Amino acid sequence: MTSTDQQPFLSVKDLRVHFSTEDGIVKAVDGLSFDLAKGRTLGIVGESGSGKSVTNLTILGLHDRRSTAIEGEIVLDGKDLLTASERELERLRGNKMSMIFQDALASLSPYHTVGRQIGETYRKHTGASKKEARDRAVEMLRRVGIPQPDVRVDDYPHQFSGGMRQRAMIAMALVCDPELLIADEPTTALDVTVQAQIMDLLKDLQQEFGTAIIFITHDLGVIADIADDVLVMYGGRCVERGTKEEVLRDPQHPYTLGLMSSMPSLDGPVDVPLSPIPGSPPSLLNPPSGCRFHPRCAFAEQVPGGRCATERPLLEVVDGRGSACHLTPAQRRELFADYAGTRHN
């Protein structure tokens, strides 16, 4: 997902994250690879349980190694994160890489002021004094659009609105100018107006600092607004990837097509019925054999020999574009066009 002449800032190769539970092994991420360059935004999209958040918690080193088996490679600016010590990861978290969580109210401590929580992150990584940290917190609150930041810096999270709390979370994540920012569905609980403001804020800050961003969401509309590149996950695996324009204009995997067909269109006919994907996401304790999407796929019977149920399709990537599907390109063109046609008739 990066140009051939640009070294990726973040490189993930064949990542596997398996959890040990009383019921068995959960294969949360099962062979995931992608690259991300500075100044680019990678949108990771998929239903709940697809492995999106697990991937990014693994990048940050936030899993309990006693119950988690992690294989593969995660390299951030030349540093292998999977072999790094906990002390090294603590130096990187909040400094070189940072994360915005989905629920700001649950992520912020109710017992400390917003300014103190932002300032403590800054003090930990820079050794700044309390006054310097408070001044920095005021500066960051101003940068993310909080009115009267020199006053609101002493407020507690419950005194902020939902949108303001999310802005405060962004300020905390950006206080040390991280080079990698992971945003885990940061706008899900916000109304559309505030959501648009947060998205614009992230884009402005990225343009200012050249930050690499991973944006996790289940909403393709959000992806269309903020992402440069898109990675579609299902059942712990990547099923499709490409630029935003490639994936949204010409989906190559039935799951991506299903996600798009289950969303209303703002520029199409208003009477087009939505087509939700039948069934439920797979259990990662006992995932389906072959293609994990095949029990829900409208086109699995079109592949001869029942390969979808028995043989895992490979993700073949050419110039950053690829999909993991047994359908031939000719079959996809015909079947996907027919599928889209039935929605407009």
TrEMBL record:
CDD domains: ABC_NikE_OppD_transporters. Gene3D superfamilies: P-loop containing nucleotide triphosphate hydrolases. Coiled coil: none annotated. One of its GO terms (biological process) is peptide transport. InterPro entries: AAA+_ATPase (IPR003593), ABC_Ni/Peptide_Import (IPR050388), ABC_transporter-like_ATP-bd (IPR003439), ABC_transporter-like_CS (IPR017871), Oligopep_ABC_C (IPR013563), P-loop_NTPase (IPR027417). Keywords: ATP-binding, Cell membrane, Membrane, Nucleotide-binding, Transport. GO terms for molecular function: ATP binding; ATP hydrolysis activity. Belongs to the ABC transporter superfamily. This is Peptide ABC transporter ATP-binding protein. It comes from Streptomyces fumanus.
